[in-house]
């Protein structure tokens, strides 16, 4: 995806400045694969196993009552440069994804992953090599954590629209709407693009930068 990569802003962008930017270009629908069965998963096994870095996110049906426990994740998204995989979670699909989620040699990069990790641990999965992107924007003038929308605006001068109506929709439905599918794919795909820019610009801590480099070099050696 070709987008401008200007020098970072000296001060935080306002919501108005972000909304005024050109629209973020998500992957086309033909490059977004919705997976609902184990059979579909198995056809993707080899290609998923060979990928070193995934844009990563998950979605859960929202809870509205006090004390109500989430039954998520209901959707798990993994994205590469040219494809977003949107998994509608079942016990079988979660077992299929476990080796990827727990693989220390496959990076899963995204925003707000602390909550995702908590949800996965409650399902008996110990995710490894999660890279939280929200805390790497101090040099851009941000003292607090940054979301994917602001990150895309800072790094690419693009506006990634985020619909609260879709984000809080029922992700446990049998058939996701086209809007849900596009929203889910964009979050993971955008996270991957942000990760690559932060890595190339050496925005991570030296320790994390080195850790990432080792994993990427290891995947290149295997190839």
UniProtKB/TrEMBL annotation:
The answer on whether this UniProt entry bears the keyword Hydrolase reads yes
Task: Fetch the Pfam families from UniProt.
Answer: DNA_pol_A_exo1
Superkingdom of origin organism:
Bacteria
Q: Which InterPro entries match?
A: 3'-5'_exonuclease_dom, 3-5_Exonuclease_domain, RNaseH-like_sf, RNaseH_sf
Keywords linked to the UniProt accession: Exonuclease, Hydrolase, Magnesium, Metal-binding, Nuclease
List, alphabetically, the CDD domains matched.
Answer: WRN_exo
A single Gene Ontology biological process assigned to it is: nucleobase-containing compound metabolic process
Domain 3'-5' exonuclease stretches: 32-203
- Gene Ontology molecular function terms on file: 3'-5' exonuclease activity; metal ion binding; nucleic acid binding
Question: Keyword Cell membrane, does the record have it?
Answer: no
The protein here is known as 3'-5' exonuclease
Annotated source species:
Acinetobacter courvalinii
